[in-house]
Specification:
Layout (H helix, E strand, L loop, with lengths): L5 E7 L7 E9 L5 E8 L21 E7 L7 E7 L2 E8 L2 E8 L1 E7 L10 E4 L4 E2 L6 E3 L2 E9 L8 E9 L11 E2 L6 H9 L15 E8 L15 E9 L5 E9 L5 E4 L11 E3 L8 E5 L4 E8 L6 E10 L6 E8 L7 E9 L2 E8 L12 E7 L8
Antiparallel strand pairs: 1-26, 2-3, 3-4, 4-5, 6-7, 7-8, 8-9, 10-12, 11-12, 12-13, 13-14, 15-16, 16-17, 17-18, 17-19, 20-21, 21-22, 22-23, 24-25, 25-26
């Protein structure tokens, strides 16, 4: 099988049996600098130098490592900061680089020197336990829009509910007073309705698993022909992984900024009376990441190839769409070398004529397809030439 991307190892776990490479994030900074973040978790993280999160995938907590490249990803060096957080998301504003994440509490860190160093994480919300993976952040008309998810407290998985958050782009985003939060959207009634019409399973492989939606991307629809387009510009499409027991479904919700400035998450009500929630979506039962390219006027997405309830973690695909509904496969980004050799949970960024991708990956030394020992960097050269 011909692959459309180069691959190189960016980070390798010092202990594949106990330290795992989880959420990756990538961003293009000033002067075409690439900033890559790696979330390290596992029972062995107590051996890592530097701070770790209070809450983590395991009791020892997680740590974010940040790497920089000034030559298009040919070589990398580590920044001077290691952050005690997990499930990070990177974005850029006029005041610098920002990293959202959590340690149970919702956190944010700031870099004013293009990623060389990062502030100690500030707490934005501490009354709830949070969750996410690197998702798209929307910046529009001077405001930042993001989603982090809050635990519903039922001690099952995924058991989370999305919360839409927004702040002025030029504000101090480390000050919680500058953020507006919606009420969380409890997906359980909608999932129960989906189960009633055969779109959601009632039994799962593990006893602690339940239907859920998670790992949200905040997307603004530019195509006026799309049923999700809002000419007023006051709403965004929230596209989420749907853990339903079925492949190739994702969840779609509407995030709205009301006239008084408050935020709300709701189900869509289309002009023909339909109320969509679970929509056909390639690889939507696993984590996916997408962004809008204004040059091609297309949305580009990296997603796992669907192959059963957990998808195929070894096969990472690139797709494109004019409206986030109708997708065309551009090609296979990567295929892992073994059963534990995952290439999944990826994030992408536009880099001139190229597309850069960071993947949660593994080889034969990985503990499992989930608990990975590598973070790999991929580059799709001249990616727009793949448009059919």
């Amino acid at each position: 099988m011909k692959l459309i991307a180069d691959e190189q190892i960016l980070f390798e776990s010092p202990d594949p049996a106990g330290i795992y490479c989880y959420t990756p994030a990538i961003l293009v900074g000033e002067n075409r600098r690439l900033i890559a973040a790696v979330d390290l978790g596992g029972p062995g993280t107590a051996a890592l130098e530097g701070p770790r999160s209070r809450s983590g995938d395991y009791q020892a907590g997680n740590q974010i490592r940040i790497f920089l490249s000034d030559d298009g990803g040919e070589s990398w060096r580590e920044s001077s900061s290691r952050l005690p957080m997990m499930h990070e998301t990177l974005f850029r504003t006029s005041s610098g680089l920002w990293m959202l994440g959590h340690s149970g509490a919702l956190l944010i860190s700031h870099s004013t020197d293009n990623g060389e160093s990062w502030s100690s994480p500030a707490v934005l919300e501490s009354e709830h336990h949070h969750h996410q993976s690197c998702g798209r952040v929307d910046i529009h008309n001077g405001r930042v829009y993001a989603v982090y998810e809050q635990s519903l407290g039922n001690h099952s998985w995924p058991d989370v509910a999305p919360v839409l958050m927004s702040a002025p782009e030029d504000a101090d985003l480390a000050d919680p007073a500058n953020w507006t939060f919606s009420k969380r959207f409890d997906p359980r009634p909608a999932l129960a309705m989906a189960a009633g019409v055969g779109l959601c399973a009632t039994r799962f492989p593990a006893a602690y698993e339940t239907p859920g939606i998670l790992e949200t991307n905040v997307v603004r629809i530019h195509n006026p022909a799309s049923c999700f387009h809002d000419p007023s510009g006051r709403s965004v499409l929230l596209l989420m992984r749907a853990y339903t027991g079925y492949e190739n479904l994702a969840a779609a919700l509407r995030g709205v900024e009301l006239e008084d400035g408050s935020l709300k998450i709701e189900r869509y009500l289309l002009p023909d009376g339909r109320v969509p929630f679970l929509i056909p979506f390639p690889g939507g039962n696993m984590k996916f990441h997408l962004d809008y390219d204004p040059v091609s006027r297309l949305y580009w997405m990296v997603a796992s190839q669907a192959d059963g309830i957990h998808s195929n973690r070894r096969r990472l695909r690139l797709l494109y769409s004019p409206d986030c509904l109708n997708w065309t496969e551009a090609g296979m980004v990567a295929v892992g070398p073994s059963e534990n050799g995952s290439r999944h949970y990826a994030t992408l960024a536009f880099f001139g004529e190229d597309l850069v991708i960071l993947s949660r990956s593994g080889d034969r030394r990985a503990k499992s397809a989930h608990d990975n020992n590598l973070t790999t960097f991929h580059k799709v050269r001249n990616f727009r030439s793949l448009i059919g």
